[in-house]
Every structure is written in C-alpha cells, then in structure tokens.
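Appendix B.2, paired examples.
Example (i):
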Amino acid sequence: ERVRPAVRVGFKLVRTVLHLLRGWWIIRLHFPRLAQPQREQHVQRWAAQMLAIFGITLVRRGPPLSSGPVLLVANHISWLDILVMHASGYCRFISKADVHHWPLIGHMAAAAGTLFIERESRRDAMRVVHHMAERLRAGEVLAVFPEGTTGNGVELKPFHANLIQAAISADAPVQPVALRFIDGRTGEVSLAPRFVDDDTLLSSVLKTLGARDLRAEVISGNVQLCEGRDRRQWAADLREVVEGLRYRVHDAANADNPLP
C-alpha cells in the first residue's frame, strides 16, 4: 500500500515531463508556421491535457469567459492557475520577469504570449501597462493576478491597482474570475496545489500529483466597465466581486444544485 502512491506519483511525473517536452517541441517545430488562432488552440489543448495528466477535473461556472477585448482579473493560488486559465480559454498572461528565465518553462511561456514585468521597477510597470493597453485595443484577452503573488487559497490578499490601469487607458472591460482547488471527495478546499511561503515548486508539484480527485473550479463574473472609477477604486471593487465568487464556488461545491 505504501508503494502504490509513490508509484502513481512517479508515473504522473514522467508523463508530466514528457508532456512538457512535447509542448516545447511543438513550439519549436510548428509555431513558426501557425497563425495566432491556431497557436491559441494548441495552447488551450496542451493545458487541458496537462490537467488530465495530473488527474485534475476542470469545472467552469458562471458566464462564459469573454472572447475579448477583455482583461481577466483572478485570484492567485498556485503555479497551476495558469494551466487552469489556459484550459478554460486562451489568454495572454502578465507574469513576473523571473519566470522568463526558468529553463524550458520560460521559453514556453513566452511562446504562449506571456508579457513579462519587473515588479520592482515602476518604469517597467508603465511599459507593460502601455503594452497591455495596445493589446486590449487590438481585441485580445489578457489575464492578471492583481494580488501580485500566490495566496494560501483561503484568504484573499489586497489587489494591486497598477495593471488595472491598462483597461482604463484602453477603455476595455474587465471580467472577474475566481479560482479554487477542491477535494472532490470532501467538497472542501484542497491545499495540495498551494505555492506559498516556504513551499518549493517541486514539493508543490509532488503534492499536487499525489492528490486524489482534485477539482479545479473556475467561476467567472459578469463583464464590467470602468464607469468613472479610478484604478484603485476599481481594483478594490473587483476584489470584492472575486471574494464573493469564491464563496459562491464553495457553496456550489457543497450544494445539490450547483451553479450552471
């Protein structure tokens, strides 16, 4: 009995590495010849396949994710969040610059359209906001985690307002999105995928691989416009909406009639 979980995790880990290499190969060999919509389809399909390898069930509730132009604003729990969002629908993420230098993953993130930001640099933040506004005006779907870092999956951190400015500058709508990881056996929040404090990426990956019946829940709110709010007020309002959606996800996970 003690060996079986280790064997199961090891098998999943091998499949994960192979799928990463397959994604890298697709990017190097096929992406240069593909149009952007085809690239987006590859990214979404690859992310969904990775969740399946992890044994994670994707559950989506609420209004459909907007096809753009739109800025998706979500809470941040884990490195898994990006896979979950991509599997739900392609979007271009804004990520910390450190990720760009990660072996293999950094190259894949860049190829998937990620915009990288030096969070400590006010000048670089302005550059990224300008670039985001251009992409929104071009009709794209962008996604940000305004908490700025991962949380514990239970408490929501304050939302930073800087990146929300891009939607104001582009006169683009924002769609709030709540993410939760649920233990399908108990209906309670699962801490397996969390990536905070002293957690290492490897330990988080192994805990996630070892989890049984893990469910990633994505619940979207209604698209909203600025309506005269400054970025700080809008960020605070969006945090309140995301917090409410998280509780709706929790209620739905334990209800006889979950949200549609």
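Example (ii):
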Amino acid sequence: MQWFEVDRKGLGKLLERRGFGFVLFELVQNALDTAATKVTVDFHKVPRSPYATISVEDDDPTGFKRLTDAWTLFAESDKKVDPTLRGRWNLGEKLVLALCKTARIESTTGTVVFDEKGRHRNRCAPRSVGSRFNGDLRCSHDDYEAACDQFKSIIVPRNVHLVFNGDVLSWREPITTLKAPLVTLIANPDGVLVKTTRQALVDVYEPRDNLEAGTLYELGIPVLETQDKYHYDVRQKIPLGFERDNVPPAYLADLRALVLNEPAELMDMEEAT
C-alpha cells in the first residue's frame, strides 16, 4: 500500500486561487523545454456552460520519454540538471489534471485518458512526433478572460512559432541584454536542487504601453509584477518558491542593481532614485 494518497479535488481547490493563467503556462513551458519549434494553444469557453476546453500541442521530435511522467508527481526530472530549462519538480501536467473534469494526453510513447472511471491507457497508435494535452475544466468567464490576457504577456522564444487561439504571438526585441552572476538552481549528484551562482543573461524589455506592468520573467514565463520601468527576463532558472510566484527580495535587488549599473539611457536619475 502507498504511504499516502492525493485528493485530486482538494488539490484542485487549492490551485484555483492561483488563477487559470498558470494552467496555460504550466503546459506551455513543458513544450518550450523540448526541441519543439511550433506550439499551438487553444483555450475556449464552452457556450452556455461553466467549463472551458484547453489544448496544447507541440512538434517535439521525441515527445514524452516516459508516459508515466504524465501522472506521477515529483518523479525525477531530466530538467533539474540543466539551469537553462524551466522544469524542476515534474509537476506541470499533474497540477493541470487536478483542475480537469476529463483530460487526454497523447505522445510518441502512447496515449492516456483521464475520466470519471479513472486513468487508463488508450490503444490508439502513438503519435509520430510531439505531444498533445486536451482537457476541460470549470472556469468562469472572468477567470477565462484574465487567463487569456495573462498568457499574451509571455515572451516567446525566437526559435518557436507560438499560436494562441489562432493568433501568432510574435517575438519581441529586447532593449538590451545584460550579463552578470546570479543565483540559480541545479541538481547535485544526489538529484537535490541546490542554489549556485552562475553567469546569467538577462534580457531587458519595454512593457507594452497601458497593457503591462514591469515584470520579472523566467525564460519567458512571467513570475512576478515588479512595477519597475522594464521587464527582466532571466534566461536561467531563478530561485522561485514552490508556487512559482515570488523570489527572495535580495534576488530582485540584485537584478535592479544590474540595470542601474547600465548606461544612463536606460534610466534617468529620477527613475533610478
């Protein structure tokens, strides 16, 4: 018998307070951590229903190496040893599944369906490339609109064609790219994530007028609104809390100091003060 069990509905209730933007980000960042060059996201409200449907599909040549990773929480992640990948705890799809009424994951190693009868493998042929997640989850109209707005703030990698509800999200040119030693997370030989300092690239972006507040990003995924003049996109793992929505104050102070030390055209004296 297992040591403990997870109540899916109880976990889902805890996650709902995070809003539904994180659902989109959790699924998309998994695709962005692969060799995918195209990621397609469809997120729509079901008419006259409290539900929304979500589909995320990528063209990664490999797909899921182990289909069991789709439902196993905290399994060892290959991403832990690479600070330039977003994944840490092998949680992404599992957190999303906790919110879904039904779901289906298709990949190169098979298909698994989650419904009222439980989890079961499907006998259909595996995909030739990539993976696809389909699910339906309870989502109010206001939550849906907020999630769509939040997702559009993502900073798309230059080598990825990202489509959201039929629209291509374009790559954005940074104002400048800075380089400095910053704290990151990387697995030690025992597989434990530990903090270490590593030379990092930080892309600095101008927020879109009246649409965005200055935000801290991790590899294109928004983490925390800073209300600063610029977006900071750190191109390596940053020291996030378990809910991926905050960083230590000292880390943010280091980033701000990095920008302040740049040439004066980035920030005048009043803004720096």
